[in-house]
Amino acid sequence: MSYYTILFILSLVMGTVYGIFWRRRYSIYFTLIFLIVPFAIRGYILQDTAEIIAQALAGLRIIYVSAVFLLLFIMFAIFDLCNLKSVFRVKGLLAALALLMCIPLIKLGSNPYFYKSISLTFKNGCAELAKEYGPLHTVYYIFLTSFLVITISTIIFCLKTKKDVSKKNLLILLFCECSSVFLFFGTKLFKLKIELAPLAYILSEVILLTIIRRISLYDITENAVEAIAINGDTGFIFFDKRFTYFASNKLAKEVFPALHDINVDSDATKNDSLNAELIAKIKDFADDNSKNLFFKDVEDKIYQVTISFLYDRDKIRGYMVYIQDDTQDQKYISLLNDFNSKLKEEVAQKTENVIKMHDNLILGMATMVESRDNSTGGHIKRTSIVVKMLIDEILKDESDDALKLSADFCHNLIKAAPMHDLGKIAVDDAILRKPGRFTEEEFEIMKTHTTEGARIMHEILKETTDFDFHILAENVAHYHHERWDGTGYPGGLQGKTIPLEARIMAVADVYDALVSKRVYKEAMSFEQADSIMMKSFGKHFDRQLKKYYVAARPRLEAFYRDET
Question: Can you tell me the distance from the alpha carbon of 499 to that of 266, in angstroms, rounded to the nearest whole number?
């Protein structure tokens, strides 16, 4: 049995071993290498056993073309092993050069460019070729050498720079390439009668088989997918862009039983159950990629279903549905939500209690002040009700020139109204409880209740988080005695420079003073009070508030009749 025949048989054995170990995610170039090696060695056998020159030339063509593509595919396989994903265009260029190199090799013997002359002789029963090389033969060797240099340079580069590739694998590859170069050119160096290149091919196959087994351990994606599939903890479903069903695993069929009823390569949209449960969700995802997640209850379990695109390189080919048992997380989230809801309720209740206590404290202070003032019994309660009536009328107004009040403003003003005279707590009892009109000096002291009220409100509310109420309450206490025409106190503000809340409070404050009995006067009739009020709009009061006072007047008179 000849040397080449033994190598040929070994190449078939290597290919069989590779077929046993083969996995779908192996580089296609590994498979091509194991397919070409026997074909290349067959060329050596054909040349060695040739009886005529045509058979020898056929063997040479196979040898030369196989060498080109073997080196090309080994180089591409090394690119993949080194995770060089940015060389797609480089691969295309190198493949084009290889095909270009094969054109003269296919026509070997028909022109003088590769071999100037070639003849077949026999020695000891073996065929021998006498060759005179042409210029293209030199180009061919330069071409092969370039491929070898690129391959070895790539391995060395990755040894120095790549951290995501096994250094042992790279060193094994480097040894393989260097050995192949030595054997490839060894025949010429040592003037041997047999070619060592086929032996280099067998060595490359042995090395590749070793590396392939090691690659299986380093391939995280492959191992992870297999582990998930075997454990059955994760479900997968695959569709193309037209919703043609490709495949699914056991868990996916448990979550979506309709998958049992459809065949591979069938239109999933024609299954009503699957269309409603899943395909509709995938279509929503196609329109809006943020809608990639939903949950499905199956018996006592909750599954998280995630939709993503199915890619082939950088092109979208379809959709992948990823299913995972999320029962524990969802139960925890539900428990956490219940806890948060209860906590919010408790916090809200306690907050409400604190606010009520805070409001009652301030209202108690205002009531205490009023109890010291002989002239204003019940004033706090009545002015608060009048403010509420005015606000009701403002909110009813839908005309173009209507005042636009927010719900928070209305709530805060009604709440702040009882505190407008809080500053009287700082006025001496001799003045506050005087049973008659004030002297000019006493009235000046009485005026200070506005600024004192603002200061007290500021101190009480400075730590509150409700900033809007804080400001509004200060303004009501500070400016409710300002007048529209600028003749009021304490600041002599005029027009809309007076805060709206103080302008509304002024109407309620004055109306109550007119129709209520005081120690220094009797209560006016509604007609007299109304006459004064109507004349005061545009002078004492904001003219825009006139229509709301007029609208509220029947309710005001009814309220004060009941009070008396």
Answer: 73
**Domain spans in the chain, listed from the N-terminal domain onward:** 3-222, 232-325, 346-563
3-222 CATH = 1.20.1070
Q: Give tens-digit pLDDT for 117-150.
A: 888 777 766 667 777 888 888 888 888 888 888 8
DSSP letters along 314-357, please? TEEEEEEEEEEE-HHHHHHHHHHHHHHHHHHHHHHHHHHHHHHH
Return d(Cα 411, Cα 416) in angstroms, integer.
Answer: 9
For residue 319 the two structure tokens come to: 């959709």
pTM summary value? 0.44
Q: How far is CA 116 from the centre of its chain?
A: 68
512-536 pLDDT, tens digit per residue, is 989 988 766 788 999 999 999 999 9
The CA-atom distances, in angstroms, between 80 and each of 45, 170, 207, 214 are: 32, 12, 16, 15
Using alpha carbons, list the distances in angstroms from residue 105 to 58, 98, 301, 306.
Answer: 10, 11, 66, 54
- Do residues 47 and 129 make contact, with C-beta atoms less than 8 angstroms apart? yes
User: Span 346-563: which CATH code?
Assistant: 1.10.3210.10
Helix 135-161, helix 88-106: angle, nearest 10: 160
